């Protein structure tokens, strides 16, 4: 998307830090992550486990707009499974459909 993005609120090295999420990325099962702030710009490189991943898209989405296909890109089978994972990491956090999130999509950088 070509929208003008506001300044980042955190650095790309803090975008994916949970070991379970790192494992999903390394296995190719996770190709997107949602955060409450903007952690990367399109084209920026994230390094995990000796591999490089290029951010391909960054955009806003309301958590209530999340689809099962979005949850699959997060590495989970459906929205409910993803929701339970997120809530287990943030006890007491409400799941508010109107809550905006930043979506960061990425792919493994390949050198052919």
Report the CATH C-level class: Alpha Beta
By CATH, the superfamily comes out as: Sulfate adenylyltransferase
Which strand-content bin applies to the residues?
25-35%
Order of helices and strands: HEEEHHE
* Low-pLDDT residue intervals, each spanning 5 or more residues: none
N-end to C-end Cα span: 26 Å
Beta strands, count: 4
Mean pLDDT: 94
Total DSSP helices = 3
What characteristic shape results from the CA principal axes?
globular
Whole-number total of structural domains = 1
From the alpha-carbon coordinates, what is the Rg to the nearest angstrom? 14 Å
Remind me, CATH topology? Answer: Sulfate adenylyltransferase
> What's the story with the biggest beta sheet?
4 strands, antiparallel
Class based on secondary structure composition and strand pairing: alpha+beta
Please bin the fraction of helical residues: 10-25%
Strand order of the largest sheet: 1-4-3-2
In words, what does this structure look like?
The structure is a single chain. The protein has 112 residues and is of the alpha+beta class. It has a single domain (12-108), classed as Sulfate adenylyltransferase, CATH 3.10.400.10. It is built from 3 helices and 4 strands, in the order H-E-E-E-H-H-E. The chain has helices at residues 19-26, 68-73, 79-89, and strands spanning 32-35, 45-48, 51-62, 100-108. Strands 1-4-3-2 form a 4-stranded antiparallel beta sheet. It starts with 18 loop residues before the first helix and ends with a strand.
